[in-house]
Amino acid sequence: xxxxxxxxxxxxxxxxxxxxxxxxxxxxxxxxxxxxxxxxxxxxxxxxxxxxxxxxxxxxxxxxxxxxxxxxxxxxxxxxxxxxxxxxxxxxxxxxxxxxxxxxxxxxxxxxxxxxxxxxxxxxxxxxxxxxxxxxxxxxxxxxxxxxxxxxxxxxxxxxxxxxxxxxxxxxxxxxxxxxxxxxxxxxxxxxxxxxxxxxxxxxxxxxxxxxxxxxxxxxxxxxxxxxxxxxxxxxxxxxxxxxxxxxxxxxxxxxxxxxxxxxxxxxxxxxxxxxxxxxxxxxxxxxxxxxxxxxxxxxxxxxxxxxxxxxxxxxxxxxxxxxxxxxxxxxxxxxxxxxxxxxxxxxxxxxxxxxxxxxxxxxxxxxxxxxxxxxxxxxxxxxxxxxxxxxxxxxxxxxxxxxxxxxxxxxxxxxxxxxxxxxxxxxxxxxxxxxxxxxxxxxxxxxxxxxxxxxxxxxxxxxxxxxx
Length: 469
Ligand code: ASP
Ligand code: MG
Description:
Number of domains: 2
Number of helices: 16
Strand content: 15-25%
Mean pLDDT: 94
CATH architecture of the largest domain: 3-Layer(aba) Sandwich
Strand order of the largest sheet: 3-4-2-1-7-9-10-8
Radius of gyration: 23 Å
Bound molecules: aspartic acid, magnesium ion
Shape: globular
CATH superfamily of the largest domain: Acetylglutamate kinase-like
CATH topology of the largest domain: Carbamate kinase
């Protein structure tokens, strides 16, 4: 029984053109596989809008959130109008969408009656996953129109998670039980489920979400729970790239990566994948492919178990924002780490990842990652809040905060091939290095530089990768 899990990202479900591609991909893969499970994200930009709406609701700004809901409704309804659906299917879909949006407005109402200082993360999570519910219904309707037996399934009752609202972690055992009970019977009846990415719930049924970009994680959780043979992530890029193509247009596709390499890439800011999705696949040796929905004929990137290859060159370089904290004294780093962790958690719901900490006889330096998933303003917000807390807690020491960049070079066993590390450092000649660390996975080397040197360092190392390929 060969099973494929395919996840379609926001850019592959956001327009009629993209959905037409999705349909043709599903029709052709259906011939090759016994069972297919589809996982979908919200349409491009929808989750951002929902997060904004939840924020406005909590501030009591009724006009603000209603405007956002009205825009979302218009966008989805306009897309439905364009799609080749029968009048009954279209009417049912429209009614479904209205019901979901009405229910959401009720929750906003509750939020706006909750004092702004009372945290309401579970209410927020029950609204920000609505984009996935809308998208799943849309795709399932489209498939039915092509005579594929398909249903949209909300993963709220299937993916069981911890209580870290906004960034929850699925419990694979509980999730597997639910999937076996509630999803496998449909698969056996030859029904193709279209499941919502991103959303789950706690064992007691409170809605949660898996962190930004979490639909990838949903795909990997489903793959593990149904013993899938492969997972394919469809998005608008050709595969995993040697660096972010938005910053370096001549970046190239990487044909193959190991799980270790891709996990480090995702952790250090390659936005194509959710960092925590790799672990479950690696444990089960389930191959993962990254493919472009608009160019399905391209091979994309294959991520799989691989043997160490001493002849292989450097694979990729990423750049991620970080915070560098320096102090003109040395001593325990515990208090400062706790402060950063608390600030980061309060603003982004992410725990702080210490990248590098180092001390000399007279100075200390600590560098923390700011996950790209935390959003574009996170760095600024965290920095300001940290500066305030440092002022309020002078006993922690005289720390100063500044934005830094963490440039990470990716390759399995980067320390094993002679000359690789030396070559990287040499190439950065003239750029001040604030810190250096090799990941314990031995798949990456990270170099901390001042934010203003970020682009130059990234381009220099990228040139090194292309010239050694
Ligand atoms: N829609 C969610 C987000 O924008 C989840 C995902 O796209 O994977 O983060
Ligand atoms: Mg994504």
